[in-house]
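User: Before I run my own analysis I want an independent prediction to cross-check against. Here's the chain; please return only the structure tokens and, at the end, one sentence I can use as a sanity check.
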Amino acid sequence: MGERELIDGVAGEPLGRDFFDRPSEVVAPDLLGRVVAHGSVAVRLSEVEAYGGPGQDPASHTYRGRTPRNAVMFGEPGHLYVYFTYGMHYCANLVCMPAGTGSAVLLRAGEVVAGVHTARIRRMPHAGGPGMEGLARRVPDRDLARGPARLTVALGLVREHNGTDCCSGGPIRVHEGRPVPPAQVRTGPRTGVSAGADTPWRFWIDGDPTVSPYRAHVPRRRGRTAR
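Assistant: Structure tokens:
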């Protein structure tokens, strides 16, 4: 049995484009419990954040309009928007609403439900080297995709995946998984944003151990000037 068949067995049918052709704040809670798959690794989403369109959401990359960096967010729904942040991490988003709208949902955290060994090696790339056997086992299961950067590493997503269509049967797919009952969904402010900080567009599964810690934005302190 191949990788695709194994993942399809635990994840169900892939979601179609109509699923994403809705406002991001509606798609976001509906993504909880869904499964994102790439190659042999699949992650069941436990935490996401919605981001709105130009002039609507000051925390969104599209707030000031279209740029080369955010162009994918203005494309068709169901495409993957991958961006580089803090000079070291990639984050992955799923584009929502019709082309030209400019909104998406950030994939913040989840549970690795297939390809755990591969995800561990990706999280600790030196674990497979000489004398390093077993090092990858030190990463707890709950931490393999706990946070947006860890999630992209576990799934093997990089800049080259920016713009990938997740609804055309390609290498990256979003499956129906097991949708979460509304009573288990919690909502609150998004993590670490300085603008639009009070907008309750972060959604997570109540009590799920893979949900990342909430952190409010902390302004950077400027260095003291000499007197």
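Sanity check: The chain has a mean pLDDT of 90.
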